[in-house]
Each structure stands twice: as C-alpha cells, then as structure tokens.
Amino acid sequence: xxxxxxxxxxxxxxxxxxxxxxxxxxxxxxxxxxxxxxxxxxxxxxxxxxxxxxxxxxxxxxxxxxxxxxxxxxxxxxxxxxxxxxxxxxxxxxxxxxxxxxxxxxxxxxxxxxxxxxxxxxxxxxxxxxxxxxxxxxxxxxxxxxxxxxxxxxxxxxxxxxxxxxxxxxxxxxxxxxxxxxxxxxxxxxxxxxxxxxxxxxxxxxxxx
Length: 209
Description:
alpha+beta
C-alpha cells in the first residue's frame, strides 16, 4: 500500500482565529466525527482510529519556518500517511480505547478543497488529486474547546519532484485564500502538527485530571 505524501502548515491558536463565515459556507461543513488518538506519541508520528479506519502518519521532514506575507509565520512539514479499513468485528470499541489510554477528539470541521492544474485553480467538493485543502476545525477534548486551522497540499509525482509541486500547491492556495479576505495573524509559536499538539502541556494536563 503506497502512502499518501503531503506538505502541511497548521496552527493551534489559543482561540478561534476568525469567524467561520469569513471563509466558509454551509457546503464546506463536514459531518461531525470523533477521532481516537494513541497518546502519548512522538511529535513526528501519529496513530488514530477514524470512522472505522486505522490511520498512521510519519513526518518525513521539517521543511522549516516560512513567512507567509507580513503577518503569518508557520512551520512547514512533510508527512507520509497510511490508512487501513478495519473490519467491523476487528475494530476496538470506544470502551477499550478509553481504557487503553487513547484520547477522543471530537471534530467539527470546515474544509475547502482546490484542484490545481498548470495555471488553473478550481474549487471542488472532492479531495483533490493535485491541489490543497484549507480548513478550520473546532476540537473538543474532555469538554474543553480548541481550534486549528491550516493547509494540506497533495500532488502526483511530477518531473521536477513531487515535493516541489506540493510546496507550489500549498503556496498558491494560501495566496488564493488570503486574496479573498486577508488572513489574521498566525504565529510560529502556535504552528505545529497534530502529534505535537497532542503532546502539548495543555492536553497533557487535562489527560491527567
């Protein structure tokens, strides 16, 4: 099974970074779901069960700090991801996951997806094969609310290297969103992947209570 390769930049601000209606409409709201994460984990790896699938991710590289215009700075990372569907009889129950120390994270997501082809960009409701997604997600852990926003780019391998294509897709969609309405200030201190957020002091603290 070949992994999915992505390049991403994500932030976990202390409060909602902008109004949902600023960038999203009703058609962008995804069904609510709860993901179960194996914790603690390394900042460069993650394991979760999502809607009957076991998903793993490994960080391929930390591209590093990048400044998006004058106000936004983020940490760009590349990831490789695998997903395996679990047979209904094989999937662990929520009771087993909780007793084994896994963490439930309820998600209310708003997602916009863009397909990129040469000089053209168009919005699609399907996951792009060559493009980038922009999301805002409300996260609830033990009745405490958190927020994350970010960009995830995907691409077919290209003649000049898939990592280059991924980076171009990410930057083009960031510029597209920012041109609609200027994004609020997002800082490097809030920029991290999901595994690093799950390992953060804020989450570790509520896990122990």
